[in-house]
Amino acid sequence: MEYKYIVNNNNRIIIRDELILSNQQILQAINFCNQALQKLDQETKQFDINIFEILGMRNLSGMVGEYFAKSVQRFSEGHLHSNLHQDGYPDLLLTNTRESLNYYASLYLEQNGKKYPSEKSLFSPFKYGGIEVKATCGNTPPASQSPKPLIGEQRIEKIISLDWKAHHRETNNLLAIVWDFINKVPTITACFYRNDLNMDDWGKIVQPRKDGGRTTSVSIMTAGGVRKMCEGWLAVIDMDAYIEAFSRRKWIGYKIKE
């Protein structure tokens, strides 16, 4: 099923004054990602498996982000390629010139259709930059205040905050999405882009606890950073509940129209 989105033609994905992706390409990527998740749901349920419950919310949000990043690459007409190193930065590497594409091609060996990357330092950060992709399904009140939504249950009416996370405070050129369960399937409900984030838009880095409670360092975007991201909205699903929710002052700040 393909959903309708309201698109903001006043914001575009620009890096160093150059248009990298059109809003139409982003819309294609959103719909492709949604359909891939729908297909995953259908295929796994044939085996009585609810893949989303198995993954759990944290892994599921990461997977939605990965699906979307791959979808963006697919419709980028070669301007972006996935970072070949799992810990590389950014997620999508800028290959929109012959020079940057040739450089990217020099960083891996290809055997049997697989690309084997060279050292991590060449992919983190990538010399020519690119786009980082982050996903969130938002935060709901603590369970002590109200029951947490179960996996598969729509969350929009309960969301109180958005919290994109990064491993450092230099993250910029950020393509961020919000997703929710629609008809029990993860679905992208909004997409945002900013190329002017700074360290003040990210919170203090939280280091891993000695007892292993957190596996990696993390910085959570500040409330001001979230508002800044939301002002850079690219697309919002054309459903009243989401248009109303994102119109809150701390997010987009007004009710968008087609």
Please outline the major beta sheet: 7 strands, mixed
List the helices and strands in order: EEEHHEEHEEEEEEEHEH
Q: In which order are the strands of the major sheet placed?
A: 1-13-11-10-8-5-4
Number of strands: 13
Strand content: 15-25%
**Kindly, what is the distance between the CA atoms of the first and last residues, rounded to a whole number of angstroms?**
21 Å
Low-confidence stretches: none
- Number of helices, where a helix is a run of at least 4 consecutive DSSP H or I residues: 5
Shape: globular
Q: Give the rounded overall mean pLDDT.
A: 95
Main features:
alpha+beta, globular, two-stranded antiparallel ribbon, 23% strand, 28% helix, 258 residues, 5 helices, seven-stranded mixed β-sheet
Write the layout of secondary structure elements.
Layout (H helix, E strand, L loop, with lengths): L4 E3 L5 E3 L2 E4 L1 H23 L5 H24 L5 E3 L9 E3 L3 H8 L2 E4 L2 E4 L12 E7 L28 E2 L7 E9 L2 E10 L24 E2 L2 H9 L1 E5 L2 H7 L12
What does this entry look like structurally?
The protein is globular and about 50 Å long. 28% of the residues lie in helices and 23% in strands. The mean pLDDT is 95. The longest helix has 24 residues, at 51-74. β6 (108-111) and β7 form a beta hairpin. The chain has 258 residues and is an alpha+beta fold. The protein contains five helices and 13 strands.
Short note summarizing the structure:
With 258 residues, the chain is of the alpha+beta class. Helix content is 28%, strand content 23%.
